[in-house]
Design brief:
Elements lengths: L1 E6 L9 H12 L4 E4 L8 E5 L18 E4 L5 H13 L1
Parallel strand pairs: 1-2, 1-3, 3-4
Helix pairs in contact: 1-2
């Protein structure tokens, strides 16, 4: 399964977004292939990593078959990993 990764623009990050991605990869890496999302290229799942609660990046150009999982706070990592695991089981 391909997980497209889209980072926000980084204008107001409240945590280390790259480290958060590495945490997700470490937890779920066996079941997913991670690639940076590309406009117009469909992926199975889109992981949007926002730096703050504004989550202001438009995602319409990044299609995905199983939807978008959004992370905007480091404290959400367990919840985000669980959500992705659930999508992998579907």
């Amino acid at each position: 399964m391909l997980c497209g990764v889209k980072f926000c623009g980084g204008c107001n990050p409240r945590y280390e977004r790259g480290r958060a991605l590495e945490t997700v990869k470490g937890h779920l890496g066996d079941g997913l292939r991670f690639e940076y999302a590309q406009e117009g290229r469909c992926c199975d799942l889109l992981l949007y990593i926002a730096g703050c609660v504004n989550r202001c990046t438009a995602l319409g150009a990044y299609p995905s078959r199983r939807g978008v999982v959004t992370l905007w706070d480091e404290a959400q990592l367990p919840e985000v990993c669980a959500r992705i695991e659930a999508l992998l089981r579907e």
